[in-house]
Amino acid sequence: MTVYVLIPVFNRLEHTKRVVDCLRAQSIAEKLGIIIINDGSTDETAEYLQSQSDLVEIRGDGNLWWGGAIEEGLKHVLPSCQAQDYVLFLNNDTWFDENYVEILVQTSIANGGAAVGSVIHEEGRDPPLVSIGAKVNVNRLAVWDLLSELSEAETRSPNSQYRVDALSGRGTLYPARLFRRYGRMRPSLLPHYLADYEVAMRFGRAGVPLVVSSKAIVYSPPVYGNDASSLSWRKRLFGRRSAHNVFQRLIFYSLVGSPLQRMTAPIRMAYFSCSRAFSTWRSLARRKEGSI
Predict the structure, then answer these.
(1) Are residue 26 and residue 159 in the same domain, yes or no?
(2) SS3 35
(3) What angle do CA 61, 34, 167 make, to 5 degrees?
(4) Does 187 fall in a domain?
(5) Confidence (pLDDT) at 76
(6) Is 238 found in the same domain as 126?
(7) Looking at the predicted structure, is the pLDDT value of residue 225 above 60?
(8) CA 245, CA 236: separation in Å to the nearest integer?
(9) CA 141 to CA 35: how far, in whole Å?
(10) 35 and 77 in contact (C-beta within 8 Å)?
(11) Would you call 24 helix, strand, or coil by DSSP?
């Protein structure tokens, strides 16, 4: 068995070094193949990767984005993958304990070849658990974290496993055979955000269990992933770096929905966007009236 670890990177060399050190310290480190997809970094990332004999570097020109970087990694590893091998998606701004990958593999085997995601802990936060996994309502075009459904007691002492509707790219293990059977990434349609959810939901629709192990912990800094708080409204709605990009969301819901949901996605998106905007405005207006 080999676990091929795919890590897209763009600059932030200090993060890359940290995640590589964590992988080298794993209890099954001898079974890992570490592939770094360097998408046009302008710092010293390329020089570092070239000096590390146990790493494989794939270079991009800066236009791969997350989905395209993972696709290049899959193209590289799948031809040599055996039936028992795995592919692990990781981001470079993460770190984890030495039994992390082993827990993911054991959980996949125990659940009949499941795709297995990680929980996210934020250091210095009480409780540290900040994300379990995605729940998705395709009809209402809504995505939320399962964590929001837990009681405070369960947040502090979560169950060992959870079933979710989608898995993120911040630490998800897939049996390699799934990509051969159900396809790889779709970077031309989803180059960045939601690409991880789409491929997981595609496997889920085929009957693959989507499981999150609360023992598979990924540690992250306070701000990570899809934070768009500093973006203008234009970049928030239409920028490629924004998880709220309306076109990308429309493509995502079209890909994961039924034929009827696909046809009605634009109408439903317009309706729910207006409805949620009105609810937000009404809530703000009530607060303003209460403060007078």
Answers:
(1) yes
(2) strand
(3) 85
(4) yes
(5) 98
(6) no
(7) no
(8) 6
(9) 34
(10) yes
(11) helix
| Tokens encoding 152 | 């405070």
CA–CA dist 166, 131 (Å, integer): 13
| C-alpha–C-alpha distance, residues 212 and 273, integer Å | 30
Domain-located, residue 226: no
Distance between CA atoms of residues 244 and 238, nearest Å: 8
In whole angstroms, give the CA distance from residue 241 to residue 50: 28
Report the CATH number that the domain containing residue 89 is assigned in CATH: 3.90.550.60
Boundaries of domain holding 269: 233-291
Contacts of residue 213, defined as CB under 8 A and 6 or more positions apart, other chains included, come to: 103, 104, 107, 116, 117, 118, 119, 160, 161
User: In the chain, count of helices (H) and strands (E)?
Assistant: 10, 11
Question: Are both 70 and 210 inside the same structural domain?
Answer: yes
Q: For 147-169, write each residue's pLDDT tens digit.
A: 999 999 999 999 999 999 999 99
Structure tokens at 29: 């480190």
Give CA–CA dist 271/262, Å, rounded. Answer: 15
Number of domains in the chain: 2
Beta-ladder partners of 7: 36
CB-count burial class (<10 Å; 0-12, 13-18, 19+) for 113:
middle
pLDDT in tens, 173-183: 999 999 999 99
Peptide bond into 175 cis (omega under 30): no
Count of CB atoms situated within 10 Å of the CB of 106 = 15
Query: Residue 62: inside a domain, yes or no?
Result: yes
* Residues contacting 186, CB < 8 A, separation 6+: 67, 195, 198, 199, 255
65: left (phi over 0), alpha (psi -120 to 50) or beta: left
Question: 158 and 52 share a domain?
Answer: yes
As given in the structure block, the two tokens for residue 191 are 């180059």
Instruction: Judge if 287 and 151 occupy the same domain.
Output: no
**Three-state SS at 191:** coil
